[in-house]
Amino acid sequence: MYAWIERKVAQYKYSAKRGTCFDVAPDKDFTGSTVVDHSAWDSLLKEKVQRNEIDGIELNVIDYKSLSEDERFSAYRNTLSSVSLGDLSPNEKLCLYINAYNFLCIDKIISSFKEQGKLPKSILELKKSGVEVWDQPAGIVGGETLTLGQLEHDILRSKWNEPRIHACIVCASVSCPDLRKEAFMVDRLNEQMNDQVSQWLLNEKKGSAVRG
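Structure (tokenized):
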């Protein structure tokens, strides 16, 4: 049921391009060393994300101003753009694209902050020349320029048979699942995804609630 709902929510605008569809391998199947170094992103999330409350909703909040001034942010952008996709297992690619989506979504907010001198009230305010933020070029991943919409629907939703992804990608909105306070790592991917779903559903203000 959860997977069916997730697909229906996106189908009004995006049609997933189905091809080879991967299942997420168990964490114990991963051996060896990781190809992509997510340590810069991991350290930033651990330092810049704090628990707070907005409009009566408890959530993880990121310090955009501090993040915008940190050299590790630009360094991780370079990591994403230069990675060789052919060297990655399906689980490593999934980690890459989840981390990339969250990073590039935040990067959109930071770019607006630098241009306008203030944070937007909503990411939807970043619409330009009639083009919604989801359909604007967001950044380069593995040598390819992608929009947030392409990352979510043409890649993540299309290439993995995995409804937990919806709890792991965050669109810089209060109503979204919480931004995780660490990067997704291939040796703990299932553990992290399970925890994201659990924490999201436990939050009655934006996950689920039983009435009556």
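Helices lie at 2-11, 39-48, 64-68, 71-82, 90-116, 148-159, 189-202. Residues 90-116 form the longest helix (27 residues).
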